[in-house]
Automatic annotation (TrEMBL), chains A, B:
It holds the Pfam family NUDIX. This is NUDIX hydrolase. The keyword NAD does not apply. The lineage of its organism: Bacteria, Bacillati, Bacillota, Bacilli, Bacillales. Signal peptide: none annotated. Its cofactor is Mg(2+). It comes from Paenalkalicoccus suaedae.
Amino acid sequence: MSSFEEKTLAKETIYNGRIIDLEVHTVSLPNGKESTRELVFHPGAVAVLAITDDDKIVTVRQYRKALKKEVVEIPAGKLEPNEDPLLCAKRELEEETGIIASTWSKLHSFYTSPGFADELVHVYLAEDLQEGSVNLDEDEFVSREDYTLDESKSLIDSLDIHDAKTIYAILMWELRKLKGQA
Amino acid sequence: MSSFEEKTLAKETIYNGRIIDLEVHTVSLPNGKESTRELVFHPGAVAVLAITDDDKIVTVRQYRKALKKEVVEIPAGKLEPNEDPLLCAKRELEEETGIIASTWSKLHSFYTSPGFADELVHVYLAEDLQEGSVNLDEDEFVSREDYTLDESKSLIDSLDIHDAKTIYAILMWELRKLKGQA
């Protein structure tokens, strides 16, 4: 199969922010024509499917300015420069929920919005949880809420859970149960 | 529980693009302090889990400039202004793969990157497929590839499938099979 690669002919840096950068690239298409691509660059992130000893998923409720509403998500956070994703996952879980987990395994990594952004989210499963103390960033306001599988599925129906990584995590959890892995 | 709402005190429009807009908002936090939020606004999108009569998932291989690589995704596309998501899903599936499906059902909608973007993806299940003719946008280059469940899981392992909506769709497909729904 021929390559569909789009080579950058010119690029304009629109914005370098605290979290994201925006560039507009003029690219050559496989048919020789030109087009533009609006590209958001992001440092990447981690998310954690943490399951308690009484078989509940650990979530955090928080306000998301982009969505103009409060939502319930699995614990997550951005990677610091050169940070190992697993160490970041352990740090974010503890900061947001106080939990220290002794068993960790990688589930998947995925790009969230491949059409315009390079944000890559690494998702981990955390088990054998111990309670510690919450330590939020100074501009972070979240409250921990633990839910059963049925409760979390109801929260998807009510749109309280409304983001890709959390719905993915709940499907993984249900799939593992059905396969006898959880 | 108290509200975590972040009110906008000031906003700066950084960019109004063909696909995305970027604004930076100065917001008031629940503790009275201020912070900034970098916000990407997107028209929203649809994606389709289409299953063939011989039990394969329909995908398209395409180059994603943001990821600097070719990936395999379920058919998807952006909503036109005021477009009904189901009609958009039917249009995108036919444009990218030539397929006309006679049975449609809604799976989930989810925000892809709630930390910085309002992109909402509506995912549909399409069954009872008929072959028609492909009709791509002029700057769109994709090739259709159909895979079994096992093949699609291998493509996740090899990172050919590497985005949230496609991994979600494959989990949904496997879950439906295990529950006897597919």
